[in-house]
């Protein structure tokens, strides 16, 4: 039942990590729980990653990525593998200089210089963010990063899952394969998937596109390219045997929770959001970012079908309990009411 509270929704994407898809899903679902209206009629303003300004009415500001604390929006240093919580100008420049996303030395050296400008701009944004009221982070791991940087976070509330992934369908094929979908780049772990093919030949299908697209084509991975049809992606996940989420560090994983909701056992990196929501050996297998460990985890699930099935069932329970829209908006309604 829709609440009578009147909410004005604001959203603006700031470059990398803007959460375009998540913001669109959120806005569409919010309309089912509150009365969306213009600024003048509103009681509360819901600012989803939008303009960093003060409103005259009570407002909620949602932070959905690390872009306020990391100019590259990856929150990890590629040259030493350590998680970078606060960073420094020196560390930021080194991160860009060693970033494997930039595949030539010339590009990396160019980005080393540009990174200093990004770093200064980010410090300004972070300063503006600290002046916002009622800040919400979309995960506990993101909340930790923000608070390490002096941001006062009111609450961590998970973004909701797209409802089309809530209903499991019958599999339309008996084909047994692993699946992954997302950006083909370094931070999303695609190089890890590529390197793992030295140790495993289990079928792997992928959907996506990015700077590593050509590298993927040189392997035996069945890359289906970019698919923007959510129904088609759902079918591919639903028919998969298990799901691989190799993101090296993340604050939220929409593709991950979609696969969990469809009852797939997960292989993921033991960091950030993945570590936050996956119960190791109960709803999936958490590994270090090592291609041999990834291949070994794939082999284990492949050989242990009953255990893999149980992990998938547990993963679905977690997804429904934590990311169902009713759960998300119940928390937001409590927050809205506390402000009016």
Give the key terms.
2 domains; 6-stranded parallel beta sheet; Rossmann fold; 340 residues; 12 helices; alpha/beta
Question: Concise description?
Answer:
The protein has 340 residues and is α/β, with parallel strands linked by helices. The chain folds into two domains: 1-160 and 324-340, Rossmann fold, CATH 3.40.50; 163-323, Rossmann fold, CATH 3.40.50.2000.
User: What's the Cα radius of gyration?
Assistant: 20 Å
Beta strand count: 12
Distance between the ends: 20 Å
Percent helix, as a range, is 40-55%
In what order do the strands lie side by side in the largest sheet? 2-1-3-4-5-6
- In what range is the share of β-strand residues? 5-15%
Q: What is the overall shape?
A: globular
Question: How are helices and strands ordered from N to C?
Answer: EHEEEHHEHEEHEHEHEHEHEHHH
Number of helices: 12
Helix-and-strand structural type: alpha/beta
